[in-house]
Design brief:
Its main location: nucleus. Keywords: DNA damage, Kinase, Nucleus, Serine/threonine-protein kinase, Transferase. Its EC number is 2.7.11.1. The protein is an all-alpha fold. It has five domains: about 1-205, no CATH class; about 215-350; about 365-370 and about 385-585, no CATH class; about 650-735; about 740-860, Alpha Horseshoe (Serine Threonine Protein Phosphatase 5, Tetratricopeptide repeat), CATH 1.25.40. It has 44 helices and no strands. The longest helix is centred in the C-terminal third of the chain and has 36 residues, at about 575-610. The chain is globular, with a radius of gyration of 35 Å.
Length: about 850
């Protein structure tokens, strides 16, 4: 009959129909089999339709059956189901519930087979008693918080996946009710799971409810919270939050400006991006409202003032370097820059030097795991804006803790009996395998003890979580990944993905654990990059080493070629510079590693020839542990040195110049000169003949360093000065009349050169010959019309300074049209264009357009 029904009515195979029926029918058949003779026979028939054994079938659906029996609130039905399983599997009640536990809790809490709201409320009200019954059977205790602590993360993930992100609004509301229920069930263990719960609740919060939520949290619960209200970050000073601010101010009491800045610094260093942005916005308002008070504070003497000013500026500079690609992240960068501008030029003597710890790649696996979790992953987990990023961070922490031997028993909230049992086991005599396990536990304990209590509370759920990263075959792409059009985030992610595929040894597990989070968190990606490269260079194949060299050269070659061509004014120019800076930092780290290895090997030589215990202890305490075979370390050092030597110094110098890192460019170029033939000094022992191109490049570098005297000296190295030399020297000296003469000479040789005409316009602007500049622009528009966009852009510079608004509007129209555009690195034409657009919007009295243009201008 079932076969006929499935074929005739539903048009599907019998097996498919049975599969759909099983979740609904099977639990009822198992629970009611004592009352119905046909139930057991039906179970056998269902198993037959699915080509499986009946016992295997009921075992597979055990969580569903037990959840159904518990939901019926009939103790007899639960006993009947347990008896049925005991008869067919031979397992007792404890074994049955243990086998079904994770999925059973999911079925009890995340049920979705009921639509009636009253029935849902009744079931949810019974859930705590059901879980108490399960806990009593499994542990003999009814301590729900202790029983659930190992399963809360999985349950919250299930609620998020099945209900909170569903399109059905009613399911989303049910998800919030279940989260509320878990909050009540967890009791004293709740604080450990706050980051996870907050990410879920943020998805459910509507902006219109924020005022009501804050008022209930702060105003209505001020007696409960008491002094904890002082820890609240700065709340926006808006009328809607007047009551909230009033309560916070009452608790905080009278605060000096210095106290307020202390709170601001704490807020700017908060893990959450939204909190940092809110605090920075309030600081901006405070700076504008109390300008005189700030100036008085900044001119005061004393260590306490110096500390707060240094901390404030450091925090604001970190905010300007925000890597977030979200709109809030971009706004944070701008508001921090605004705050620095409002603070103004502080006396450098009042700012303490920024302490920068020297980055060292040479460290043990446990040190790397500790640094990753303590400084990066814990922050990423707590500050995650959504569950995807948070789960990626949690998975990385979970796997790293496993690698280091950290187990659930390390959490201070575990049952005391578990601790006592482990304590007794340590003193026993074990075979070798168990002794290794004891050592592993000791390793995990040592790592866990290094974490602060704050970090322990954040990562404790990861000791028992069960996240899994899908095994994706990372087919390493052939050839370099970098393309000039790629964003920094995309490039570094794909390169790290490729390097992870090449990773070997114990480090490969650490790198694989972070595969998910490096896609979302740039700080983790940038931190791991030198470790990945060092692993591939030292222990990888020749193919992996050559691949790294090619990747680095692809980034530097693109920059070096740009440095001698027309500057590009576009969205990706900044991204390219970030990629170049990442490469420079990587090369610096590798160079430091080589220096450290050579130093450690040199220091170890006398130690190896001495049997002094004191010297042996000193070697053991070195920051970098030497391998037993020093030859292996020498080979690794040789591989890294070969990588560094394979990158031409002149390419590094040109790439540095492209980033306007002139000091770095000079350093690389000096190395290039020494390698080439010794020095530029004619009196040196070894001196070569240098091309004029080399001297010209060095003059460009000195020009960037604002060294006019050096330019004159370098020009004397030529047999005769070139026209470009005269241009550079006179520009730096401010002799614009001489520069104009040189540009006119260059134009005689290249009458249709866009660059030379642009240089002439720039000279006229600097000489304040604005009317002549307008005349020249009009002539160029008629003579070289294909570059109309370029000429109009530079014409705007003269028009707004002359106050000729009709001409400014005409030039702006041309500058906004499609066309060829030449951008000189020395021209501020684009800035002037934005200024003109703001002036135009002000004349139209369009305040919204003015605000929009100011916002765009701040991004430059």
């Amino acid at each position: 009959m079932v076969e006929e029904f499935s074929a005739a009515v539903l048009g599907i195979e019998t097996e498919e129909l049975v599969k759909r029926m099983i979740p609904v029918v099977l639990p009822k058949l198992v629970v009611l089999q004592n009352d119905s003779d046909q139930a057991l026979a039906t179970l056998y028939e269902l198993a037959k339709c699915l080509n499986t054994d009946m016992v295997q079938l009921i075992v597979n659906w055990l969580p569903k059956v037990l959840a159904f029996a518990l939901h019926q609130a009939d103790e007899q039905e639960l006993k009947s189901a347990l008896q049925f399983y005991h008869e067919h599997t031979g397992s007792d009640n404890q074994e049955i519930f243990a086998a079904a536990l994770p999925a059973l809790l999911d079925e009890l809490i995340c049920f979705s087979d009921v639509d009636d709201s009253e029935e849902i409320s009744k079931r949810l009200a019974r859930v705590p008693r059901m879980i108490e019954e399960v806990a009593r059977i499994l542990t003999g205790s009814e301590d729900l918080p202790g029983f659930l602590r190992n399963h809360v993360v999985g349950l919250l993930n299930s609620i998020d996946r099945k209900m909170l992100h569903a399109e059905d609004t009613s399911l989303q509301k049910q998800a919030v009710r279940r989260i509320e229920m878990l909050i009540k069930l967890m009791g004293s263990h709740l604080s450990t799971y706050v980051p996870k719960i907050m990410v879920l609740l943020m998805h459910a919060i509507n902006k219109a409810w924020l005022q009501e939520i804050l008022e209930e949290l702060v105003v209505q619960n001020k007696v409960i919270l008491k002094q904890h209200i002082r820890e609240f970050p700065t709340v926006p000073n808006v009328p809607a939050l007047a009551e909230v601010n009033k309560v916070i101010q009452e608790v905080r009491g009278s605060m000096t400006l210095k106290d307020q800045l202390h709170d601001v610094v704490d807020g700017l260093n908060h893990e959450n991006l939204n909190v940092r942005y809110m605090v920075a916005s309030e600081l901006s308002k405070l700076l504008n409202q109390r300008t005189e008070d700030f100036m008085a504070l900044f001119t005061m003497e004393g260590d306490s003032v110096m500390d707060i000013i240094s901390s404030l500026i450091t925090s604001l500079l970190k905010g300007c370097a925000e890597e977030s690609r979200t709109l809030v992240g971009q706004r944070l960068k701008l508001i921090c820059a605004d705050c620095l501008g409002a603070i103004g030029a502080i006396d450098p003597a009042k700012i303490k030097g920024f302490s920068s710890t020297r980055f060292k790649i040479a460290c043990s696996d446990d040190d790397l795991i500790f640094e990753l979790i303590h400084k990066h992953l814990a922050r990423a987990f707590r500050a995650a804006p959504d569950t995807i990023i948070q789960d990626s961070a949690a998975l990385a922490i979970q796997e790293l803790l496993k690698i280091a031997g950290c187990e659930a028993s390390l959490d201070e909230n575990v049952l005391e009996q578990t601790k006592e049992k482990q304590h007794l086991e340590v003193g026993k005599s074990f075979p070798r395998g168990v002794d290794d396990r004891t050592k592993m536990l000791g390793r995990g304990q040592r790592l866990w003890d290094r974490f602060s209590n704050y970090v322990k509370e954040i990562i404790a759920p990861c000791l028992t979580s069960r996240f899994q990263l899908p095994n994706v075959s990372d087919s390493a792409a052939c050839g370099p990944i970098y393309r000039p059009s790629m964003s920094f985030r995309r490039w570094i992610y794909f390169w790290i993905k490729k390097l992870t595929a090449h990773a070997t040894g114990s480090r490969s597990k650490i790198f694989n654990a972070c595969r998910g989070i490096v896609r979302h968190d740039m700080q983790v990606a940038i931190y791991l990059l030198p470790y990945l490269v060092l692993n591939a260079v030292c222990d990888g194949t020749e193919e992996a080493r050559s691949g790294i060299t090619e990747e680095i050269l692809s980034v530097l070659d693109a920059a070096a070629s740009d440095c001698s061509t027309t500057a590009v004014h576009g969205n990706n120019s900044g991204q390219g510079e970030v990629c170049i800076q990442a490469v420079f930092t990587l090369l610096d780290n590798l160079g430091q590693w080589v220096d450290d290895v050579e130093q450690e090997l040199a220091l170890s030589q006398p130690l190896q020839s001495s049997n002094s215990k004191q010297q042996a202890v000193k070697l053991k305490d070195q920051s970098m542990t030497l391998p037993k075979d020093s030859n292996q370390l020498l080979i690794q050092c040789k591989h890294v040195s070969e990588l560094l030597g394979a990158i031409p110094k002149i390419t590094l110098a040109k790439a540095s110049f492209r980033c306007q890192a002139y000091a770095r460019s000079l350093s690389y170029f000096e190395s290039y000169v020494r390698d080439k033939s010794g020095a530029f000094n004619p009196a040196s022992e070894r001196n070569g003949v240098f091309e004029d191109e080399d001297i010209s490049f060095l003059m460009e570098v000195y020009s960037g360093l604002d060294e006019p005297d050096g330019l004159s000296g370098l020009a004397s190295l030529r047999k005769s000065k070139s026209l470009q030399d005269h241009l550079l020297i006179n520009k730096k000296a401010g002799n614009w009349a001489e520069v104009l003469t040189s540009c006119e000479q260059a134009l005689q040789m290249q009458p249709f050169s866009v660059q030379r005409h642009s240089d002439v316009l720039n000279c006229l602007l600097n000489m304040c010959h604005l009317q002549a500049m307008v005349t020249h622009v009009d002539g160029l528009i008629s003579r070289i019309p294909q570059y109309r966009k370029t000429w109009c852009t530079q014409g705007v510079q003269a028009a707004w300074r002359l106050g000729r608004w009709d001409l400014m509007s005409e030039y702006l129209t041309g500058a906004n049209e499609e066309g060829l555009l030449y951008s000189s690195s020395e021209s501020n034409a684009f800035f002037d264009k934005d200024v003109a657009q703001i002036l135009q919007a002000m004349m139209k009295k369009d305040q919204f357009l003015v605000a929009e243009k100011l916002h765009c201008l701040n991004k430059l």
